[in-house]
């Protein structure tokens, strides 16, 4: 059997390259996106979001000094570092939602993004497994949406929505402050519940 009978149009390396080039680009893009989401949802869904341990810096000789240093480090983490982290979460989820709903108003996208972030953080104090499922549901949903609607997907529409961020600075700040307050409230309630449980179980 002649090869021309199997491939009547003939084999061409140039045609093969033109056909495979977008496949390679999509594979690399999807792999990078999946890796980013894998790291992102593990981070945002963790109850204790900071991996660094400051306890070794709190080995002061006097108890009052240790308490003071602990308070300084704690405030530094959640008043200075956490706002940056929260802004990153908020921005990432807002961008993802703009891909899913390019025709929505930016304020509506901000509202949903804030609700998603808040739900994930609350869930992390109840069940980190549940929180991880919630944190990865939206990003992978965005990936599926783009793949299914690849032919009609317009990146420019999503970018036009994001351009409205400059006109919504106040709303972004309010949501960011709310995220910080929510985290403090969750840690406070978690601490009270933990101490209550330890007292109840120690008394048995």
Structural summary, described in words:
The chain has 204 residues and is mainly α. The protein contains seven helices and no strands.
How far is the first residue's CA from the last residue's CA? 86 Å
Number of helices: 7
Task: Give the structural class.
Answer: mainly alpha
In round numbers, the mean pLDDT is 79
**Topology as a string of helices (H) and strands (E):** HHHHHHH
Keywords:
single chain; 204 residues; mainly alpha
Brief rundown of the structure:
With 204 residues, this protein is mainly alpha-helical.
Task: Write the topology of this structure.
Elements (H helix, E strand, L loop, with lengths): L2 H4 L6 H32 L18 H38 L5 H21 L1 H21 L6 H8 L6 H34 L2
Helix pairs in contact: 2-5, 3-4, 3-5, 3-6, 3-7, 4-5, 4-7
């Amino acid at each position: 059997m002649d090869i021309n009978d199997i491939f009547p149009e003939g084999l061409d390396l140039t045609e093969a390259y033109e056909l495979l080039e977008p496949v390679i680009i999509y594979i690399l893009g999807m792999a990078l996106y999946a890796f980013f989401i894998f790291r992102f949802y593990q981070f945002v869904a963790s109850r204790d979001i900071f991996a660094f341990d400051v306890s070794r810096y709190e080995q002061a000789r006097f108890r009052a000094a240790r308490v003071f240093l602990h308070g300084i480090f704690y405030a530094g983490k959640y008043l200075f570092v956490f706002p940056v982290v929260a802004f990153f979460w908020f921005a990432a989820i807002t961008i993802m939602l703009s891909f899913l709903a390019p025709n929505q108003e930016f304020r509506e996208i901000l509202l949903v993004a804030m609700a998603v972030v808040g739900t994930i953080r609350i869930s992390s104090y109840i069940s980190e497994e549940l929180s991880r499922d919630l944190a990865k549901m939206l990003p992978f949903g965005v990936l599926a949406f783009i793949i299914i609607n690849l032919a009609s997907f317009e990146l420019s529409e999503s970018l036009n929505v994001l351009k409205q961020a400059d006109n919504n600075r106040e709303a972004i700040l309010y949501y960011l402050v709310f995220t910080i307050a929510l985290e403090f409230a969750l840690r406070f309630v978690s601490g009270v519940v933990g101490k209550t449980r330890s007292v109840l179980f120690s008394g048995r």
